[in-house]
Amino acid sequence: MRSKSSLYWWCQLGGWLFYGLTMVFFAFIFENKSNNIFYPRVTITILSGLVFTHLLRELIIRLELRPPIQLQRWWLMTIAVLSIIVLYSLTNSAIVEWMHLYDPQKKVSVEKRFLSNLIFDSPLLMVWVSIYYVWHYIELGTKSEIQKVKLESLVKELELKTIKSHINPHFIFNALNSIRALVDENPGRARTAITELSNILRSSMQAEKQETVPLEKELSIVKDYLALEHIRFEDRLQVEYEIDEDTLDQPVPPMMLQTLVENAIKHGIGKQKSGGIIKVVSDFRDDYHELIVQNTGQLNGNVNESDGFGINSTHNRLKLLFGGKATFAIRDTEDNMVEAVVKMPVQHL
Questions:
Q1: For a designed S-S bond to 268, which of 53, 225, 297, 337 qualifies (C-beta 3.0 to 4.6 A apart)?
Q2: Global confidence as pTM
Q3: Closest CA to 257 of 185, 335, 342, 332
């Protein structure tokens, strides 16, 4: 508050002194005024300007006329401004008359001097009012933008944390189901599965601390996950990778690829009696980083986002992290495969 008050007074003093110096400059250039009347009148103009513009500011504050002004209150602001202009001109005229700061040979009545001051001083005060309101409108706009950015950042952070908090419990639930199926049937493989799960959880906990991770780390989690699922599905699950090594440093949302692979296992391979293929593709296309997860199966023309956590979370995370620059789609291909395609803008690292 003190800094704003100091800035206001510095602007007041600087503005009126600049106006006074401008008057002196032009007076000497065009009229060569050097009598004893000119400087006192300039001083009166500056001091009166400081007093009455400050009075106008106090009126604006007390009458709550600072931006944004309601349409119904513009008339009140107009009255306040016109009143200050009249008082300013009247005061200047009265002081000049009282101190005899005029040429006796060119003396005019107080009324004429008041009208003259009113005509010449009104634009000056109107400029002050314009600067004052423009300043406050700019300040208001800046504050609104800052608050908007802070709010968007807070909402984004909260939404990302909410999405992440859903990802890990969802993944753990499915992984534990896989291990439970092996405990009685094959304890040795169950122990191997627990080791794989431990590796995945360690990686996912580290990834959760960031909004994005390099694809290489995300791919490591996926490989551990598929190794775990391969124990359950055995020969029914075939895995293929087609990874462009140049894409390994590209940032991706943590656990997103793993969620899509998990979705492909649950809704694709898990529903095929003979199992099928999971294929993970990463490549650059048209200045986009394209991630594709393919699985054996068909959509049957029905993809409902509200039914799938993987679909929902992927849409939401891409929107939060990349706005409208990233896309996500699931579609059938001609060779009895379903593919989930994520396109993200290439990050030039």
A1: 297
A2: 0.53
A3: 342
